[in-house]
Specification:
single chain; alpha+beta; four-stranded antiparallel sheet; globular
């Protein structure tokens, strides 16, 4: 058994979801349909969601604690070729502040509360208890790795892990671009509207926005399920407008989903409901 697979199994027994990485910190395609980038590459992005083949076989979505998967045939070749082990920080309610050079480390020591640190090739990982949205380049040499990303496992580190501070959460707020305006085709409807008052629809949209906003993991799946629920309740009678759908898209984008991911989730929900 390879050293990387032994490490992965040890982490999995402690509840840490893991996956193998190729050289260059790139994940493997773990199903025959996606090997050698046959699926077009989207699942190989660090911030991607479930693979386009329909299985969560790439990147952070592949991270698992199941020993049968880790030791199974699908990953046997991957472990022989693996250059590192990765894990999904958000899956265990952690956030990694990835400091890529000495200036970034110096900034963190001046600015952020002390916590557990792990040395990297060029800098350090600072690990906090608590999950949040992820983002790259929130400032020079600083990435945030939590939900919907993976981080390399470089050892347990030293120091006492502390709660995720507002100073780290604020880095995402400052970095987040304005929400892109989108126009989404609402269902044509045509049926009799069962909603007695506009307040019913308004309350439903507000609840859906909150459900997306509150998601701390599996954001893409949460967005899809929320779109599906809204369209199931309001998609056939014609009372759902572009403005309502735009509010849902805006909430999803604020959680890190891009416009294409939103459109995919919306269209998949329409297809599921036959609309």
């Amino acid at each position: 058994m390879s050293a990387h697979r032994r490490t992965a199994l040890d982490l999995a027994t402690r509840g840490v979801p893991v996956l193998p990485l190729r050289a260059g910190k790139v994940p493997f395609g773990n199903c025959p349909a996606c090997r050698d980038n046959a699926c077009g590459g989207r699942p190989n992005m660090k911030t991607s969601g479930p693979c386009a083949c329909g299985r969560p076989c790439h990147a952070w979505a592949a991270a698992t604690t199941d020993p049968d998967v880790i030791t199974g045939a699908a990953w046997s070749t991957a472990w022989k070729q693996a250059a590192a082990v990765a894990y999904h920080p958000g899956g265990i309610r952690l956030t990694v502040v990835d400091l890529d050079h000495t200036d970034a480390v110096a900034w963190a020591r001046r600015t952020l509360p002390a916590t557990r640190t792990v040395p990297t090739t060029r800098g350090e990982h600072w690990i906090y208890q608590g999950a949040m949205s992820s983002a790259n380049a929130v400032r020079d040499g600083v990435d945030i790795k939590s939900t919907m990303v993976y981080a390399r496992w470089l050892g347990p580190g030293t120091g006492t892990m502390t709660a995720l501070p507002d100073a780290v959460r604020a880095l995402i707020v400052k970095k987040s671009p304005p929400v892109r305006a989108v126009t989404v085709p609402a269902p044509a409807g045509g049926g009799e509207c069962p909603h007695r008052t506009p307040a019913y629809l308004s309350r439903g949209i507000a609840m859906a926005e909150q459900r997306i906003t509150d998601a701390t993991s599996a954001v893409h799946a949460t967005v899809y399920r929320t779109f599906l629920a809204v369209l199931s309740a309001h998609g056939r009678c014609g009372c759902l407008t572009d403005a309502h759908a735009g509010r849902l898209f805006a909430a999803a984008q604020a959680k890190g989903e891009n416009v294409r991911h939103c459109n995919d989730a919306w269209n998949n929900a329409l297809t599921r409901l036959g609309l």
